[in-house]
Amino acid sequence: MPVMKINKSYLGSLLKLKISDEQLRDQILKLGLEIESMTKNEIDIELHLSRPDLLDPVGIARALRYFMHKSDKFHYKLGSGKPEMTINVSSSVKGVRPFIAGMVVKGIRFDDISLQQLMAFTDKFCDTFGRERKKIAVGIHDYDSIEKTDLSYTLSKDDSFVALNSKERESFSSILKTNKKGIDYGESIAYGGSGYPVLKDSKGILALIPIINSERTKVTKSTKNLFVDVTGNSEYAIGKSIDMLAAMFMDMGATVCPVITAYGSSKKTYPMMDSDYISIALEDIWKSLGVKFDYRAAISLANKMGYEAASVGKKIRFSTPEYRIDIINEQDIIEDMAIAYGYDYIQPIGLPSYNAGSLESTTLMNRNLESMMTGMGFTQVMNSYLTNLSVNYEKMEVEKNKDEAVTITNSVNSSVSMLRTWLLPSLMGNLSRSQHEKMPHRLFELDMAFSVNASKKVSEEYRIAAVVSDPKANLNDIKAVLEELMYLNRIKYTVSKCSHGSFIEGRCGEIKVDGKSVGFFGEIHPKILNNFSIDEPVSAFEINLHGLGIY
Amino acid sequence: MARADSASLTELEKRAELSRDQVLWSLHGLEDKGFVKLHYKEERRIILTAEGKRYAENGLPESRLLQRISKSEVKAVSLSSDEDKIGLQWLMRKKLANIDNGSLRITDAGESALKKEFPEERLLRAIAKDIEHDKLASEYGEELDTLKRRGLLDIENVNEFEKAEITKKGIEAAGDSSEKKDDIGSVDREMIAKMGWKGRKFSEYDVSAKVGREFAAKKHVLKQTIDRIKDAYLAMGFKEISGPTIDSAFWVFDSLFVPQDHPARDKQDTFFLENPKELEIKERDYAKKIKEEHEKSWKYEWDIDKARQSVLRTHTTSVSARFVQEAIAKIASEESDEMLPLKAFSIGRIFRNENIDYRHLADFYQHDGVIVGKDLTMANLFDTLIKIYAKFGIGIKFKPSYFPFVEPATEFYGFSEVADEWIELGGAGILRREITGISRSKISVLAWGAGVERILLMNKDNGIKSIAELYNNGIGFARDMRYV
After folding, report:
1. What are the pLDDT digits (tens) for A153-198?
2. Are A388 and A528 members of one domain?
3. In the beta sheet, which residues pair with residue A383?
4. Does B300 sit within 8 Å of A291, measured CB to CB?
5. What CATH number did the domain enclosing A170 receive?
């Protein structure tokens, strides 16, 4: 989860309330946000990806004000201002990054902190909700440095411009290789060799989308008016995003003016400041929460979460805030009602049980097997299912079988590349880590191993393996255990000589049940003991439990 | 003993035909009566500290770090764990590595150190095996000092029993009391059969003398905990279910309403498989419904190829998802003869593609529960979870949260005595109707998933400090664990 550093005095100025640290913490938690840490000057808040409107201090302050019933302005509408300009979209961007929305923000006032928090917010928003700018990217420019003619959003051949925080002109291709933003985001964007998406005014390039703006339109503390663009591959998402941003700038005291996007002759004006009505029966809210309240209380709870609400017949009609991107349908609103009510106030109510509970046969059988093994003096170990070719095969001196192994494509750990196909390598690792402990060592594991068969079917099976290690450990020690285990489980088995890389030649037996091989036992070859730095002899068995017909 | 003036322990064992412990008991008793005088000699003994024990088992931090550097590039700033920092400090001090451009580089001395075992490490292991002090001191004088300064070992002077000397009073007692001479030591078969104990006295043992522990073979503490969880569910009328560890992205993500571009499906969090690369989605009709729901709600084009990708499950909620889908199909076709609510649970291994170190693991256990019924509420959900955790003596509290598959969603927390703070135990909520495929006014489904290992971190008495400890499985760890 992303963490956002919020400046406390800035948040305080936005809240316009006197509030103690304890109250602030309490209200933020009740709103469903998580506080990582809180110092004199800063709060680190862990953010929910579903609520981008809560990624910045402005949005958090807005939500807190509703939550404490300090605000009843539920909607954000544009003034009657005419569209400032038009962005002409070339059809060339279609296969690359088809959608753009713009707006002009007038009369903004920044200081160091509010500017820094705005930039941090847009970065976080583009990384999380914007999926590292693949889905959505936001550009913020100094409007007064832009030529007041129509803009154009088009694909360009490799050109050059002075990118933000640079002094020299640089080509697009070079920016992608050398500029930090170019390296971070360039690769994830498919240019398809057809060109680079750019936003231009009559003087030249404003931005290489969605990588970096121009130095010419850089926003500083003294900037008064902004031009904002949102680009992406989902028309729905860019529309919702620019509405959310517009509400934020309005809360910062600025006026938002619309901008037209022209896809040829088809025109759209952004921000749209869309709001929906969603009606929910009061009873349905009760039924989800397990608590009852009247219409007036329901409306007050809705207001607490920033909804304007009214009762219409047996239903509550909610009108959704313009800045909310996450509301899909009535279920999302019911959740908000639960948060407003307060999870702490929902009284637990018991549920009846009409059906008998039951455990799986594997659970019951495995419990028996564990009793048998501990009864014979074996201590249980539980190891990771994850391993690598070296431990699973090489160190056990058996041939690598890449077709049989369930292998992983993208592990961040060099020691993890596959799921174990058997348990003995894990147990050898346990013995290896126990060399300084008093002898004898008697361990067993009863758990899963994994493999892929010839027809690409995955098998996930329970196996049991046991090891005995002490200065006198030999074949008979382990065979006696095997014999007892089979006796207790009423299993008839036969043993035939076998040859297995992990065992001493002539001291390894294959275990067969109904003529089918189910496992093996024997004395581990000293070479394997050397591989695992084990000092004393080891004898061992391993059985595939699904071959015994016990489950 | 009257036959000689003094005797060593081994001699006494042989002569009295008693075990070492029995001899010691008897001697302490005799000393109390003033019959013998016990002589001790002072011996130096090397004892590993907890940190020293850990290094004896896992290797020194600097040797482990050196190994890592030799395999791949390591940035100095990326070293954040305590052990890594210690390792770095010693690598620099021993001049086995230096920092070049922020990355650690092995020096020539480091290269040659890589080829052999670190002498300190060899020493730690030798001490762990109980090799005598004098031998170690002559061989490893310098390293002993270094390790002592590093706080990895202590050298203690202990009094070892050397010999027992009979006193004048003792000789008298032995001489004039035929009774004493006749006292019974070990009870044996012949004496029992012939009732040879009749009319004789048993010599007294010192019952307060110390003896070593017998090591019990036992079930793993984590398995004990899993069994307790299963029994808790069983007692509340839940049916155990299970499902594949290796699963399609469809069941792990898509069926749970996680959009295909959601960060949780990122390559960084999820293990994607090379073999098998894809798994078939047999539930064609259900997949079609899921496609529609995704496209309607998330407004993107759903790709069945992405759903076919095989992954190591990141939660056991995939098991619950299958159960819910089947249960609702049965209820809808009125095939089910079970009364609502249906309750089911599963416990299984889940995976996160994360860096592994001594505190973090890439696979661990989750327990997952689901209740299918009519008009199920958050109040019912809270009640169920409170009752499950009450069986472990853990009080829980709820907080709003967000998961794509439940609305309303909650996280629940329990107070950990080990971490000395409230820690997250799991997530829960009411399943979205996009997943159940049925209106919530007809059927609602409560669902939750929670960590298993962290239950052991709640109570200090369990002696578990970190989750990774549970999978270390050294025999020492197993022997030291108590029942939970």
Report:
1. 999 998 999 999 999 999 998 998 888 888 888 865 655 567 899 9
2. yes
3. none
4. no
5. 3.50.40.10
Q: In angstroms, rounded to a whole number, what is the distance separating the alpha carbons of residues B115 and B238? A: 57
B401 with A32: Cβ contact below 8 A: yes
- B261 to chain A, any CB pair closer than 8 A? The answer is yes
Residues on chain B touching A348 (C-beta within 8 angstroms): 379-380, 382-383, 386
Count Cβ atoms within 10 A of the Cβ of residue A335 and give its class: 0-12 exposed, 13-18 middle, 19 or more buried. Answer: buried
Work out the widest C-alpha separation in chain B, in whole angstroms.
Answer: 105
Q: Residue B292 has what pLDDT?
A: 95
Q: Is residue B17 part of a domain?
A: no
Give the total number of structural domains in chain A.
4
B362 touches chain A (CB under 8 A): yes
pLDDT of residue B155: 79
Residue A292 pLDDT level (bands cut at 50, 70, 90): very high
Chain A touched by B439 (CB under 8 Å): no
Residues A500 and A470 in one domain: yes
Record the pTM.
Answer: 0.82
Which residues are within 8 A (CB) of B348 and not within 5 positions of it... i.e. 6 or more apart?
B242, B243, B245, B313, B316, B319, B365, B366
Question: Cα–Cα distance between B327 and B346 in angstroms, integer?
Answer: 15
* Contact between chains at A234 and B72 (C-beta distance less than 8 A): no
Residue B173, domain member (yes or no): no
pLDDT-based confidence at residue A548 (cuts at 50, 70, 90): very high
Average pLDDT over residues A272-276: 94
DSSP A298-315: HHHHHHHTT-EEEEETTE
Residue A234: predicted pLDDT? 92
- Chain A contacts in chain B segment 375-404 (CB below 8 A): 375-380, 382-384, 386-387, 397-402, 404
* Alpha-carbon gap, residue A207 to A231, rounded angstroms: 11
User: Does residue A413 belong to the interface with chain B, where contact is any CB pair within 8 Å?
Assistant: yes
CATH of the domain at A48: 3.30.56.10
Chain A CB within 8 Å of residue B282 CB: no
Q: Verify whether the Cβ–Cβ distance A370 to B219 is below 8 Å.
A: yes
**Residue B165: inside a domain:** no
| Separation of alpha carbons B433 and B354, rounded Å | 32
Structural domain that includes position A283 = 277-342
Same domain, A333 and A429: no
Contact with chain B for residue A135, Cβ under 8 A: yes
Q: Does B267 touch chain A (CB under 8 A)?
A: yes
Pairing state of beta strands A315-319 and A308-312? antiparallel
- Scanning B286-325 for CB atoms below 8 A from A yields 297, 299-300, 312
User: Any chain A CB within 8 A of the CB of B219?
Assistant: yes
- Contact predicate B343/B236, CB 8 Å: yes
Its ipTM equals 0.93
Spans of chain B, pLDDT less than 70:
1-5, 130-134, 174-181, 358-359
CATH number of the domain residue B432 falls in: 3.30.930.10
pLDDT digit string, tens, across residues B438-482? 998 899 999 999 999 999 989 888 888 888 888 888 899 889 888
CA-CA distances (angstroms) from residue B253 to B109, B146, B290, B309, B376? Answer: 51, 54, 11, 11, 24
Kindly determine whether residue B222 and residue A382, on different chains, have CB atoms separated by under 8 Å.
yes
Whole-number mean pLDDT of chain A? Answer: 93
Indicate whether A259 and A288 sit together in one domain: no
- Give the model's pLDDT for residue B181: 62
Q: Between the CA of residue A462 and those of A150, A356, A422, B130, B162, what are the distances in Å?
A: 69, 26, 10, 39, 54
- The answer as to whether B254 is a domain residue is no
Question: Is the residue at A447 inside a domain?
Answer: yes
| A426-473 pLDDT, tens digit each | 999 999 999 888 899 999 999 999 999 988 899 999 999 999 999 999
Contacts of B73 in chain A (CB under 8 A): none
Question: CB contact, 8 Å: A166 with chain B?
Answer: no
